[in-house]
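Same chain as my last thread, 72 residues:
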Amino acid sequence: INEHRHISDSIWMGVGGSFDVLAGYSKRAPIFWQKHHLEWFYRLLQEPQRIIRMMALPKYMLLIYRKKFLKK
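reply #2:
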């Protein structure tokens, strides 16, 4: 995703975790976590090294918000 920042007016979504599940490298979260839309949190508990990437998401969302709604 980072390599394609120069492309504007687009939406990018990381699906790496989905590929891990489909390839059989990781299991899906138990049903409880899925039903409560907390599968991401379950994966974070299972793979704590993800915290660095996940902490960048709010910063990214704020950047997008500023660019879209606070243009002058």
